[in-house]
Amino acid sequence: MLTLHPSIRMAAQEVHFFDNETNYARGYSWYLNQMPNLDPKQMAVEKSPSYLVTPGVAERIRAMDPTVHLLMIVREPVTRLVSDFTQITFNRLEKGLQTRTFDETIIRPDG
User: Fold this and answer.
1) Separation of alpha carbons 53 and 47, rounded Å
2) What is the pTM of this model?
3) Does pLDDT of 111 surpass 60?
């Protein structure tokens, strides 16, 4: 929804710069190259959900720019759970890996 605003441009995909050692080692210029071209009055944004839960990410972001503003958008928890399950299952199927049903994944056998 943010990208409906003409001043906001979104990176094409999740960049995973601050939470991925390989990408982080590529440097800040690599990170900037993942962002869309901007007009002078536009800003670029990116989303990488694991930034919220990966240790060290906040420190890396602060080291890049201590004045940066972060926007955290949260989803209704059950909708997020189903979305994550669907994405994981799809990714496993694409790789030819075994999958489990939702119940097998979510409900523990010991109750």
Assistant:
1) 13
2) 0.71
3) no
